[in-house]
TrEMBL record:
Pfam families: NIF. GO terms for biological process: protein transport. It comes from the Eukaryota. Signal peptide: none annotated. Component of the TIM23 complex. This is Mitochondrial import inner membrane translocase subunit TIM50. The keyword Transport applies. The keyword ATP-binding does not apply. One of its GO terms (cellular component) is TIM23 mitochondrial import inner membrane translocase complex. It is a single-pass membrane protein. Keywords: Mitochondrion, Protein transport, Transit peptide, Translocation, Transport. It is found in: Mitochondrion inner membrane. It comes from Bodo saltans (Flagellated protozoan).
Amino acid sequence: MATTLQRPLLIFGLRGTLIERLHTSKLPSDITVNPQHTFGLHKVWVRPHALETLVALSEVCDVALWSSTTAKNTHPIVQGVFGHTAQGAAAAAASSSSSNSGFSSSGFSTPPAVSIPFKFVWTREHTSTDDFRRLLSSQHDDDHATIKDLQLVKKSFPDVLLERTILVDDTPSKSRLQAGNLLWLESFGEKNFASDDGMLKLKEFVMKEILPAPDVRLVLPRRL
């Protein structure tokens, strides 16, 4: 008798993976694609096909979000773009911090078009520092480099199987502790606002190779 496989858990990064967020003072002059959202003094671009792909994948997979930005900056964006509201302590912390900073989901110019059922939304507070990248930083982003340890997910959600867990991120070093679970998506930013097809490639890969794999590490890591 065939064994029923547990639904895969896809854990997505946020900035550079699903969205790009730029302060109005740092907008390149050659951007020709309008942002989908205005968020206070920030413009937010959603990766092409991200919303419909997340909706489709959530029917056959569990989906979660793990951002390397702080809770006060993450939760309002996740609510404003993906229609997911933080719960419990995370909601209280995000609300307090957002009120103090003026960074809240009520500042979005348009309401979310969907509501993505994320299993959890984690933030920088759930990561550890990548001391190696920070020590040898060659660009500003390296100063804030983080590591995402899937063992923490397993500890918080005992039903999660690492052999069915995929970390979807545009920064491969974040998966250094479990590199065999990485699905490396090309970074989303101003260079590919209009032409990016990364989410379409991801959906096809998940449907064809991840869903039937008894252990996703047999087909990962992979770069799309």
